[in-house]
């Protein structure tokens, strides 16, 4: 629905979902299952906008497979009864393909969505949240923040960051001019950038403050995924890419002939092209930090229902969800909390939401976090 078609007058929503990416669409499907009727998903652009902005060549590292028929949800699904592998017929979707899957979920579930609404700020007055938007002020009893991370890159961290180009601003590696590149950050998106540049015959140097390609854990939130490790071993990557582990970058200086990258070890490297920043994302949760207590690592402190411990009624969904040492940064992790949030909102509205129990059968309802953190033995 467009802004012009929508009548805002006097409406108080039971819930507003801010952001219609993987998290917003998924939690909206759970709200619908819980029989909450008066809710609305909002997006500053459109459903799946962040995925549509991924570099054209970038693909999901988590593989899709149509496993639903034996009671296991496709690892990249955000809603029961759906499978990106089935609909898209690819194992590792591009961002654009995944955006089309999210739009299909919106259609299949008939989810209410208002696009082109940018939420500027949120306050709570009495029992109601007031959302100042690019259009009008919207009011709701509950808010689910699902603004994601991709549109909020980390542009700080060392002197001269402004001379670099963040991977979130690269539409495609195909059009990139130059033969020699420096990538700062060697986790998933940094190695992805190096891989695509190497495929195009470029020489690439990757600097990382640690050594993610040798991390000894089975948790892909910390170690590189098998998909990426496989790429790392490819002949082209081995030939074209030099990896510099345990080499934090301290500064980037713009010079007449290009850029100088200085490391904490005191080494200087020259490059004619803007260094590529793959140092992660500040995340959209920074916009709502006044409504949450903060953990030591800066992420919002959440109740067992992913609700604010400071301002009841506002929830966080998506990759910024943290519980103790557990990082819910992948879809297959954070989707297990959609039903937890939907249940909490439903019960506060006086609805039973018993139907959400079915999410347990599908591994989509994680309310006992004691199982988390298990390592694989082999
Ligand atoms: C480069 C990269 C690769 C990743 N690869 C994988 C992977 O392979 N597998 C996996 O499981 N996970 C992956 N992730 C992690 C995670 O699944 C993604 O970050 C995912 O996009 C998060 O979904 P989201 O809905 O929280 O955020 P987004 O997809 O970013 O959606 C947020 C939405 O909110 C809207 N929005 C933002 N701010 C506002 C506002 N103020 N007002 C209104 N609307 C707003 C945006 O337009 C956007 O549509 C990856 C993450 C990144 C950054």
Bound molecules: flavin-adenine dinucleotide
Structural class: alpha/beta
Sequence of secondary-structure elements: EHEHHHEEEEEEHEHHEEEEEEEEHHH
What's the number of helices? 10
Radius of gyration: 21 Å
Strand content: 15-25%
Write a concise keyword list for the protein shown above.
about 375 residues, seven-stranded mixed beta sheet, FAD/NAD(P)-binding domain, 2 domains, five-stranded parallel beta sheet, binds flavin-adenine dinucleotide, 17 strands
Give a description of the structure:
It is a single chain. This protein has 378 residues and is of the alpha/beta class. It has two domains: 12-151 and 282-371, FAD/NAD(P)-binding domain (3-Layer(bba) Sandwich), CATH 3.50.50; 161-277, 3-Layer(bba) Sandwich (FAD/NAD(P)-binding domain), CATH 3.50.50. 21% of the residues lie in helices and 21% in strands. Strands 1, 2, 3, 4, 5, 6 and 15 form a seven-stranded mixed beta sheet that branches. The model has no long low-confidence stretch (mean pLDDT 95). Bound molecules: flavin-adenine dinucleotide. Flavin-adenine dinucleotide is lined by residues 18-24, 42-45, 49-51, 60-62, 118-119, 146-151, 189, 281, 284, 318-319, 329-332.
